[in-house]
Amino acid sequence: MRLLVAGGGLAGSVAALVAREAGAEVRLVRAAPGASALSLGLVEVAGERFIPSLGEPAPRGVGDPLAAARQVAALTPGHPYRTLQASLERIPEALGLLPRWFPAVFGPMVPGRFATPLGTVRRAAGAQRSQAAGALVDGSRLALVGFRDDPALFDAGLVAAGLAEAGLDARAAWCDFLDRRELVGRSPFELAALLDRPEEARRLGESVGRAIARDAAGATLALLPPIAGIERPVETLERIGAAAGLRAGETLGWLPSVPGFRLQRALDAALRQAGVELVEAELRRLEPGRALLESERTLDFDRAVLATGRFIGGGVRRGEAFVEPLVGLPLWDGRVALAAQLIEPLLGDSPEAPAAAFRAGVRIDQRCRALDGDGRPLGWLWAAGSVVGGADQGADGAGLGLCAFTGLLAGRDAVAAS
Question: I need a surface site. Which of 63, 73, 152, 292 has the fewest CB within 10 A?
C-alpha cells in the first residue's frame, strides 16, 4: 500500500512512521518544516483548566493527561477529542511513541510544571528531555541563570521574580560566560551550537557555579535558557551541571525556538531511518490517487493523510474566505461551517479566549477520515494534527499531544483500510 503524507510536522511524521512500521510504502511531502519546529519544548494534551489534580504526594498542579482529554471531550462540543472519544485510551500509547522514535529529544512523558521565559508556570503532559530536567518540583531551590555581559539574552531577574510570586524559591544568578567580546550578541542558536563543544559546556558550568555561589547560594537546580546544545542537549546539561556542582535544566523556549529546531531534526532523522521518502516540494493539489506538485510533477498513491497544519503550515488559509487549499474540503470551527464570514467576530478577546478563527479546520469522523460537504467520509483521505477543526491550543491546550494522538490514529487506520 502506498501512503502519501502531506505535511512534515509531528502529526504527519507520526502518521508516516506508524504506516511505515505497518509495512506501507510512505512518501512525506512538505515544502518546509512544520509548525512543530516552533515548539517551545512542551507536549500538551489539554490546557490547565482541564488538568484534574492528582493530589499529594504528586507535584502540585500536575494531572493525568488522559483524564484531561476526557474532560475536554465532555465539555467541548466539536472538539477532536469528542469526535475521537472512543479512542482516547490510546493517548498514552501515542505519547509513548515520542521517546521511542525521537529519543534525542524525548524521554518518558512525565506530567509536570515548567518555567517559561516570562516567569510564568505551564503545566503539561511532558516536555523535551532538557526541559524535563528543569521541571519545577516543590522544595527545589532554583537559580535562574542570566548572562551579565548580555542581559537581554535571558532576563533571569524577571523570571526569578515571576516564579517567586508563584510560590517557588527562585533567585537570579548572573554568570560571566559571555565575557568574550566575540560571544556578546550571538543568537540562541549560535550559542547552542557553541555549547555542543564539551569544553565550552564545562566553561559555562564553571561560570554558573561561581555565579550561584555569589548570588544564589544553596540552590539545588540551575535553570538556563534553552541554549544547551543542538546535537545532544542532555549531555550538555550534564556537563554544565557537573562543572557547576548541581543539577541543570532548561526553561521553555521562545521564538525562534531552539527546542523546536531540535524537534524538527529528530523528526527528520527518524523518518529517514525508517525508510520514509521525503519529498521537499510544494503541493498544489490532492485528488484521489494523485498528488500534483508545484513543479508539475505528479505522485501516485493509494491513501493519503492530510497533516498540513493550520495558518502557519498553510493547511488553512484565509483571504476572502476560509479555504483548505489542497482538496477543497469544507471547514468548520467545531460548531458551524466557516466560509466568508467577517473575521472580527471570530477572534477572541485574548490569546486564551475561545476564538472560532483559531479552531478552523476540516471535519473528521471517529477514524480520522476527512469528511466532505455532506458529512460523508472520503475513502482515500485521513486528517491529523492542527488541520483538524474544533481545537484551539491557546484556549484548550491541545498541542503536540493531540498531534501525536491523531497522527497515530490516522496513519494506522489508513493502512488498515487498505
Answer: 152
